[in-house]
Specification:
mainly alpha, 2 domains, DNA binding, Ribbon_hlx_hlx, Arc_rbn_hlx_hlx, Arc-like DNA binding domain-containing protein
Length: about 130
């Protein structure tokens, strides 16, 4: 199925890709093609890579918090350092401030996520303290 959107022909594919007919100035196309060739990519692959860098996927707060906690746990397990403890404490403090609403510009859902993660952290800390 073809759709004309503002002069750009878009074709829907079976997977989550769409086919787009794009007009480029010839010199721009030549520069992109030369760059793609040097990096062993197709012209299409280079255009997709460039657009992906310019327009990255959204980074949900919940995923970011989970990743930070996971990294902090790994670092804490592999390193015995006061700086690691300070980092973990700063992360907890930031989550507390997010949960309390002191950090501005975050949604109600982000506050809920921060509260959930804090609960998990404190439960985990309590469990590890009891095991020690």
């Amino acid at each position: 199925m073809e759709i004309d959107i503002g002069g750009v022909l878009v074709m829907a594919a079976e997977d989550d890709e769409v086919r787009v007919t794009l007009r480029l100035p010839a010199r721009l196309r030549d520069r992109i093609k030369a760059f793609a060739d040097r990096h062993n990519r197709s012209l299409n692959g280079q255009i997709v890579d460039s657009l992906t860098q310019q327009f990255p996927e959204p980074w949900p707060l919940e995923n970011r918090i989970d990743e930070m906690i996971r990294l902090a746990v790994v670092i804490r397990q592999t390193t015995d350092s006061a700086m690691v403890d300070k980092l973990a404490d700063e992360m907890k403090e930031t989550l507390k401030e997010m949960a309390s609403g002191r950090v501005t510009g975050i949604s109600q859902r982000a506050q809920e996520i921060a509260r959930e993660r804090l609960k998990e952290i404190y439960t985990s800390d309590l469990t590890s303290d009891l095991e020690d």
